[in-house]
Write a structure and sequence with these properties.
Number of helices: 0
Distance between the termini: 40 Å
Radius of gyration: 13 Å
Order of helices and strands: EEEEEEEEEE
Helix content: under 10%
Shape: globular
């Protein structure tokens, strides 16, 4: 069992930055991949970043590559998402999620992740 709690969302202007944090408790943190998803109203939940327990090369979709950075601290059981150069289209509820089944390649579909946080709202105004 894993519990995940996000924090750090809020309003920000276009071009601004935010850092989201996700605290984990439960199973050995370093044994699973962590991901950040987002879901905007009327849209499907999409993966915006993922990082393995061994800190191997993170995954980013093209929509956020170069602007978002995922990191983790295995000792403290924290995962972070640094978001820079934010755009109005980044507005969404952001979720952290844990994936116990990832192998050589990152899973990108929400159904492949096992545990979820409650989400934190990010609103980017123009």
């Amino acid at each position: 069992q894993v519990q995940l709690v996000e924090s750090g969302g809020g309003p920000v202007q276009t071009g601004g930055s935010l850092r989201l944090s996700c605290a984990a408790s439960g199973r050995t943190f370093s044994s699973y991949t962590m991901g950040w998803f987002r879901q905007a109203p009327g849209k499907e939940r999409e993966l915006v970043a993922a990082i393995s327990g061994s800190y191997s090369s993170p995954y980013y979709p093209d929509s956020v590559k170069g602007r978002f950075t995922i990191s983790r601290d295995n000792a403290k059981k924290w995962t972070y998402l640094q978001m820079n150069s934010l755009k109005p289209e980044d507005t969404a509820v952001y979720y952290c999620a844990a994936d116990f089944q990832s192998g050589r390649y990152y899973h990108t579909h929400p159904a492949e992740y096992d545990y979820w946080g409650q989400g934190t709202q990010v609103t980017v105004s123009s």
